[in-house]
Amino acid sequence: MQAQVVNKPDTACVIPSAPVKRKTKIFWVTLILGGTLLVSAVFSASVGALSITPGELGEIIAFKLGLIDTPTYDEQKSLVFWIIRLPRVCLAILVGAGLGIAGASLQGLFRNPIADSALIGVTSGASLFAVFVIMLNVKFLGIISEVGGAYTLSIASFVGAALTTLLVYQLSRLTGEGGMTTMLLCGIAINAFVGALTGLMTYMATDQQLRSITFWSLGSLGGANWTSVMAVAPFVFCSVVFMPYLSKALNLLVLGESQAAALGVNMTVLKRKVVVLATLGVGASVAVAGTIGFVGLVVPHIIRSAFGPDHKTLLIGSALGGAIVLTLADTISRTIVAPSELPIGILTALLGTPFFLYILWDQKRRKV
C-alpha cells in the first residue's frame, strides 16, 4: 500500500486561536478607550473659569516631578490644577468606572438589558440613609473626630447601600430558591418600601432640609478633594480589578441558570461575588457623588454594540467607558451654566434618555 503523505500546514496560514483573538481584542479595546479617557481627562483639566492649556498642564506636572527647574506658568494655575481640577477629574474617573462596570455585571447576572444598581437596592438604600442623616443632622462616628461632620453623610450613604443590598440578598434566599428572578422581585419590593420611607421623611423635612435632600439626590462632583478620592479608590479598584475574573461565568450564564450550573458554574458564589463587587463600587460612588443615573445603564449598551457581547471585553470597556462619559459630563455640567454648576445627575438623565432610546431602536432595526 502506498503511504499517505500528510502535508503540514504552513505556520503563516494558521488561524489564531480564540484565546489569542480575545486577548488581542481586549488589548485594542483597552488601548482605544484608555487613550480616549486620557484625552478626556486632559480636556476636563484644561477647561474652566481659569483656562489651562495642555502645554501648561505638562509643564505643571513636569515641575512637580522635578523634570524642569524654571516654570513659566502662572502659580495660580498650578494651585487650581492640583487642588481643584485634578481631584475632580480623578473622582469622575473613579465614579464613572464603578457605575459602568457595575451596570455591565448586573445586566449579565440578571440577563436583563435594563438592569442596574437600583435593582439590588444600592441607590435606594444610600438615599434613605442620606435623607436620615440630613434630617436628624446627627454627628456620630467619633473616630474621625474633626472630619466626622463633613463625611458623616458619605459614610452613612455607603452603609445604607450595603445594608439594603444585604437585605435583598438574604430575602431572596429566604423567600425562594435564591435564583435571579427571586432576587429581582425582592429588589423591586425592597426598593418600593425604602422609597416610601424616603418619601415620608422628605415630606416631613423643612425647607432647608428639603433643599439639601434635593441637591444630594441630583448628584454632583462639586465637593471633590483628595480625601474623597482616596476614600472611593479602594472600593472602585476592588470592583474594577476583580470583576473581569467573573467574565467566563457570566458568558456561560447567557445560556440560562440551569445550563450554566450544568457547565460547572456555582450560581450561589457567582451571585454573591457580583453583588458584593457591584455594591462596593456603586455604594462608594453614590456616597460621595449622590445619585447619578444612566451611566451604568447606557454605557454597557454602547460597549456591547461597539465591541461585542463577550463579558471580558464588556466589563473592561464599561469601566473605561463609564469613566469617559462621567468625565465629559462633569466638564459640561460645571461650564455650561458657569459660574453656577448644573447637577450632573440632571445632565446624564437628559443626555442618557434619548441616547438609550436610540440604542433600543437601532437594535430593533438590525433584527428586522
Describe this structure in words.
The chain is built from 14 helices and no strands. With 368 residues, the protein is mainly α. The chain has a single domain, classed as ABC transporter involved in vitamin B12 uptake, BtuC (Orthogonal Bundle), CATH 1.10.3470. The N terminus is likely disordered.
Superfamily (CATH H level) name: ABC transporter involved in vitamin B12 uptake, BtuC
Tell me the CATH architecture: Orthogonal Bundle
Q: What is the gyration radius calculated from CA atoms? A: 23 Å
Number of domains: 1
Q: Which range does the strand content fall in?
A: under 5%
In CATH, what is the class? Answer: Mainly Alpha
Membrane topology: Multi-pass membrane protein
Keywords: Cell membrane, Membrane, Transmembrane, Transmembrane helix, Transport
Protein name: Iron ABC transporter permease
Organism: Dyadobacter luteus
Primary descriptors:
single chain; 368 residues; mainly alpha; ABC transporter involved in vitamin B12 uptake, BtuC; disordered N terminus; transmembrane helix
